[in-house]
Write a sequence for this structure.
């Protein structure tokens, strides 16, 4: 395992779930953390939990290109050389048939899952190339591999993440900058609660009768990927609970 002590790790969607779990595991390894999310109070709570870790908070919405560019270009000198970018910010809205879908939901998913990831990547990767080091980790999904009923636009957004990851890796060939796509199946986070617009009872049913992955499971895999020797690139990992075989086939007790 390669040490990442004192490396600068920027995590989007850091205020909860997989992002917060990543912050904790990277903090334990001695990394310096730039935590990005819309909810400033949640970021501040997380920073309090990570006392003893060097943390820089960036409360912003990755969908806002101007804000992303301004925030990244205004980073203090000690924080400007990002070594690891974890594009974790993302969400799903609704589970409707395409012809019955809400356009507002589509726009939120596409703006966050695709455009937000692109903005962060575009503004940070040139510095990695110039410095001759860096690693981009994109959070994809099993939904980027297999479409399921009602998942139309969300699945399309994660298929785009898969294509963007593959394209970025090809574009960076010949540089030391690595690209990894981590694609989980069922993970119990706020994901389903957000998808169903706060319907907690409906969200809980997604995970009933099975043992889903946890945010810590995903963070552990991401940490493994970025701590491999420089000549090793984990291009893509698809991980699912033991109780899940495909996007739609699960075992429930």
């Amino acid at each position: 395992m390669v040490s990442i002590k004192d490396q600068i790790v920027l995590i989007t969607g850091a205020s909860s779930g997989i992002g917060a779990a990543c912050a904790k595991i990277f903090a334990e390894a001695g990394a310096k953390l730039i935590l990005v999310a819309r909810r400033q109070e949640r970021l501040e709570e997380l920073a309090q939990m990570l006392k003893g870790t060097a943390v820089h908070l960036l409360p912003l919405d990755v969908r806002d290109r101007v804000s992303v560019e301004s925030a990244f270009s205004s980073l203090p000198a000690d924080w400007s050389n990002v070594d690891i970018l974890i594009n974790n910010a993302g969400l799903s809205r609704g589970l409707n048939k395409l012809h019955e879908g809400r356009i507002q939901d589509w726009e939120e998913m596409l703006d966050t899952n695709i455009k937000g990831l692109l903005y962060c990547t575009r503004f940070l990767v040139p510095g990695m190339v110039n410095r001759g080091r860096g690693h981009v980790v994109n959070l994809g999904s099993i939904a980027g591999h297999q479409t399921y009923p009602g998942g139309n636009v969300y699945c399309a957004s994660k298929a785009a993440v898969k294509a963007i990851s593959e394209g970025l890796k090809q574009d960076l060939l010949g540089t030391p900058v690595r690209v990894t796509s981590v694609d989980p199946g069922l993970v119990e986070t706020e994901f389903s609660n957000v998808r169903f617009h706060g319907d907690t009872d409906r969200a809980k049913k997604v995970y009933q009768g099975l043992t889903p992955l946890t945010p810590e499971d995903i963070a552990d895999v991401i940490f493994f990927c970025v701590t491999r020797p420089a000549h090793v690139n984990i291009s893509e990992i698809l991980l699912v609970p033991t109780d899940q075989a495909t996007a739609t086939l699960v075992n429930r007790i």
